[in-house]
Design goal:
This protein is α+β, with helices and mostly antiparallel strands. Helices cover about 30% and strands about 40% of the residues.
Length: about 70
């Protein structure tokens, strides 16, 4: 079971879109918000994702398809 920590960097056009809500509803994963910084022009959020390996991989691929930059944090 994966529990990666990732930083999601949002492009300006997604700042007002409920991406995390959609992510949780779409995939069977646990989301733990560790920190975030959101402004009117840019934003990022660091999360720990928990779930089955394949589901976490699919969730990260879905985020990338939406236009969110996914960066792994160690």
């Amino acid at each position: 079971m994966k529990e990666p920590i990732v930083r999601l960097v949002y492009p300006p056009d997604l700042l007002r879109v409920p991406v995390l809500n959609q992510l949780i509803q779409r995939f069977d994963i646990t989301v733990n918000i560790l920190r975030a910084q959101v402004g009117s022009e840019a934003g990022w959020i660091e999360l720990q994702l928990g779930g089955e390996d394949e589901v976490v991989d699919d969730a990260l691929a879905w985020l990338r398809e939406k236009g969110v930059y996914v960066q792994f944090v160690e």
